[in-house]
Design goal:
Blueprint: E1 5-11, H1 18-31, E2 36-41, H2 47-55, E3 60-62, H3 69-80, E4 85-89, H4 107-114, E5 118-123, H5 130-141, E6 147-155, H6 158-171, E7 177-182, E8 191-192, E9 195-196, H7 206-219, H8 222-228, E10 253-258, H9 268-276, E11 279-284, E12 298-301, H10 310-314, H11 317-329, E13 333-336, H12 338-343, E14 346-348, E15 354-356, E16 364-367, E17 373-381, E18 393-400, E19 402-405, E20 414-419, E21 428-434, E22 437-440, E23 443-444, H13 451-467
Parallel strand pairs: 1-4, 1-5, 2-3, 2-4, 5-6, 6-7, 10-11, 10-12, 12-13, 13-22, 14-16
Antiparallel strand pairs: 8-9, 14-15, 16-19, 17-18, 17-20, 18-23, 20-21, 21-22
Helix pairs in contact: 1-2, 1-7, 5-6
Length: 468
């Protein structure tokens, strides 16, 4: 891929500033007239939304645990071919991933798979020569990893940066210090209980974006980054480009997808896989008072922040009644996390208010002050279901601040999944099935099991044939 540029922005730990700096680098290179393709390592729905707003190109997730090496390499190469540069934002600390024994799911693993040099972001607040010792450890922890340079963050001033450069030149003279960001810089991204405010809720104004670009133009050597980021020499660079394969169907069918500020957590890959299986995606906004098209053959309710819009959603009587009617007719409905909450009897908010929902599932949900679940999840289908045949394994993750409450006995409720336990957990049932609806707290990435979207589309097509 002659003339392409690419690098990964990694950090020493979560909260070191890599998201802000990744966004700033995207804004700066875009301001220089480059087409920047953004990526995010790990199961994240929030950062990619900001990437997309900054660059104007849809950000995509890369993941070494949920997805195979070949899948990641093909996706990366296909999208880089349409851009001048790829900027990959890492996840957590550079070597953090699925467990403490392997590099699975880590930013370091992805950088090696794709052949990317790493720009390491180091929070140097209250550190001087010790920062060089920290970088030395990161530099030598994995000899197979290529580093482009270091950006120090949270600096006390120019003198602080000079001190750090001295320590680096004495210890790691071959590793460039690309710049340093003073701690008084006021650029911050708003936060919420799931991490950051979603990009669906705010619009990045031009001034904020210009400030981001100006931040690294002033304090980072962008020209040096351009010289260090030439792509094409890494092990991942020679993977064949991904080919889009569409299942041949006699005609497309409509799968409606709720998409707005309440339903905003989706992997774009899942939409692509549905389309390749023969579906035509139609988006609608329940918060705005819209319901899914009457000729829909299936419904997909993703995660997001339904608790923040619980009053609005509860008032959408037509939408909630349409869900109940669709299930009574046998329409396939797939719901994740926030979608599960809307299919339940009610949502209890942190303010103590109860808002009735669709009432399809025999329980309600309650918001909590603290996170209920976080981490990678692997599900095994217990029986044939909406997403495939018994025994199919699909990978994803959980991340929610709500829990199930006031469960009612309902013999029609069955479990589609069994979640495989990790080192610190046991196997447990999940995937609540009532009639033609499948709801779960797990956000599944169908790239881990492409049979799942094919199965969903097939059952939507079978449903449509029965109502014609």
């Amino acid at each position: 891929m002659v003339g392409k540029l690419a690098f990964l922005v990694g950090g020493t730990h979560s909260g070191c500033g890599k998201t802000t700096l990744a966004l700033a680098l995207m804004a700066a290179f875009k301001a220089r007239g480059m087409r920047v393709q953004p990526f995010k390592v790990g199961p994240d729905f929030i950062d990619p939304g900001f990437h997309t707003q900054i660059t104007g190109m849809a950000s995509r997730n890369l993941d070494g645990w949920m997805l195979g090496r070949d899948y990641n390499q093909r996706l990366f190469r296909r999208l880089l071919e349409q851009a001048d540069m790829a900027i990959v934002e890492g996840v957590m600390g550079l070597f953090d991933g699925y467990d403490g024994l392997t590099e699975s799911g880590s930013s370091a693993e992805m950088a090696k798979w794709l052949g990317l040099p790493v720009i390491l972001v180091v929070d140097a607040r209250s550190m001087a020569r010790s920062a060089a010792a920290l970088v030395y450890g990161f530099r030598h922890f994995d000899p197979g990893l290529k580093f482009a340079g270091i950006i120090f963050n949270q600096l006390g001033g120019e003198g602080h940066l000079d001190y750090l450069k001295e320590a680096m030149s004495a210890t790691l003279p071959e590793l460039p210090v690309l710049g340093g960001i003073p701690r008084e810089e006021p650029i911050r991204i708003p936060e919420r209980h799931l991490g950051l405010v979603t990009a669906d809720e705010i619009t990045i104004d031009p001034e904020w974006e210009q400030n981001l670009a100006g931040l690294v133009e002033r304090y980072v050597d962008l020209d040096l980054i351009l010289r260090l980021a030439e792509y094409g020499q890494g092990r991942g660079s020679h993977a064949p480009a991904e080919e889009s394969v569409r299942v041949k169907m006699e005609s497309p069918l409509i799968i409606a997808v709720a998409r707005d500020a309440a339903f905003c957590f989706y992997y774009p890959d899942n939409f692509e896989l549905l389309s390749q299986a023969g579906a035509e995606i139609r988006f609608f906004s329940p918060v705005a008072g819209e319901s899914f098209p009457e000729d829909s053959a299936g419904l997909y309710l993703g995660g997001g922040y339904p608790e923040l819009y619980a009053e609005d959603l509860s008032a959408q009587k037509h939408f909630l009644a349409a869900i109940r009617g669709a299930i009574s007719r046998g329409m396939p409905i797939y719901a994740e996390c926030g979608g599960l909450m809307v299919l339940s009897r009610f949502i209890d908010t942190l303010e103590g208010k109860r808002h009735p929902m669709a009432g399809v599932l025999p329980f309600g949900t309650r918001m909590l002050q603290r996170r209920k679940a976080l981490g990678y999840t692997e599900v095994v289908l217990q029986e044939s279901s909406l997403l495939g045949e018994k025994g199919l394994v699909i990978r994803g993750h959980e991340f929610h601040y709500s829990e199930i409450v006031e469960e009612e006995t309902n013999p029609a409720l069955t479990f589609a999944y069994r979640i495989r336990g990790r080192k610190f957990g046991n196997d447990r049932p999940e995937g609540y099935t009532v009639g033609s609806a499948l709801a779960s707290y797990v956000h599944l990435h169908w790239g881990s099991a492409p049979e799942a979207p094919v199965s969903f589309v097939r059952q939507c097509r079978e449903y449509r044939a029965t109502v014609k």
